Amino acid sequence: MKRVLITGITGQDGAYLSEFLLNKGYEVHGSAHDLSADKLWRLDELGVREKIALRDVDMTDEASVNALVKSVQPDEIYNLASRSFVAASWNAPLPTADVNALGTLRLLQAMRELCPTAKFYQASTSEMYGSGNQQHRQDEDTPLHPKSPYAVSKLFAHWMTINYRESFGLFACCGILFNHESPLRGLDFVTRKISNGVARIHLGLSDHISLGNMDAKRDWGFAGDYVEVMWRMLQQPVAEEFVISTGKTHSVRDFLAFAFREVGIEDWTKYVKSDPKYLRPVELQELSGKNDKAKRVLGWEPRVSFEELVTMMVRRDIERLTPQT
């Protein structure tokens, strides 16, 4: 039985990855800085909480990270720990960098010293592209030009992972994942804000949704599909970087239209308000990934369509908000 360590296990990706690896027969160990009950709801929804060895670990503390790696001695490490809400990173750049950038470095150094034969996956992000190659889909060779403290911190982690591979011969790779959503997404994110807001309007619990930039376009996929490709990367003979995306873009307005249509509302404009407080200091208008390498090398393609993703999220939020009899 292989032993796996997932940092940031209480997040959306950590929960889906846990479920996936448990089904593969792995012994799953997971860490997070906050293991309070209200942070474990994703693991509870998937029914995997009791099957995981959970550990409270602070990624900003070197001794804590070292003790984690020494204790678990994992065969595979998936570094999903992150302060991942992009908009908040402008107001908290130092803690964002400490967790996302230096936290990754602490983990890589611990792996190098304590379990150098393990395989390491770093959760990189399409936000690193920033304004690079805006006229075409982004791939592994597209220039990187991050536009937020979050993206800059992730770029440090991305290149440090590659550096440790090239410097010390570690099996360390990066998945450059484009936006991936699910019913397990946090309410701070625009997709879940929409699905939850539509559910509340449908049930008469609210009368509007407040949003920022509705013209932004993103390449949205299903998180449950994307965690599988993380695992596939670590099963390859050579560590490499891969763009993971659907290759299709939709605007926030498209997401709104599909979400409201799910509850029988065609004209959604009367239910949505624009609020400048949700605008970012620098807006990225469009991100769209080219996943040809993942298809060719990993044999992976996304299964859940954009429409199916939106439907799934709206229906789940309606279920959550409907009183149980």
- Stated plainly, the CATH topology of the largest domain is called Rossmann fold
- CA radius of gyration: 19 Å
The total of helices stands at 10
- The CATH superfamily of the largest domain bears the name NAD(P)-binding Rossmann-like Domain
Order of helices and strands: EHEHEHEHEHEEHEEEHEEHEHH
Strand % is: 15-25%
CATH architecture of the largest domain: 3-Layer(aba) Sandwich
How many β-strand stretches? 13
Q: Major sheet: size, sense and barrel closure?
A: 7 strands, parallel
Instruction: Kindly report how far apart the N and C termini lie.
Output: 42 Å
Describe the fold and architecture:
The chain folds into two domains: 203 residues, Rossmann fold (3-Layer(aba) Sandwich), CATH 3.40.50; 86 residues, Alpha-Beta Complex (UDP-galactose 4-epimerase, domain 1), CATH 3.90.25.10. Helix 1 packs across helix 7 and helix 6 packs parallel to helix 8. The termini are far apart. The mean pLDDT is 95. The chain has ten helices and 13 strands.
Secondary-structure map:
Layout: E1 3-7, H1 12-23, E2 27-32, H2 41-45, E3 53-56, H3 62-72, E4 76-79, H4 93-114, E5 119-125, H5 149-168, E6 171-177, E7 180-181, H6 190-202, E8 209-211, E9 217-218, E10 221-222, H7 223-234, E11 242-244, E12 250-251, H8 252-262, E13 272-274, H9 292-298, H10 306-321
Parallel strand pairs: 1-2, 1-4, 2-3, 4-5, 5-6, 6-11, 7-10, 8-13
Antiparallel strand pairs: 9-12
Helix pairs in contact: 1-7, 3-4, 4-5, 6-8, 6-10, 8-10
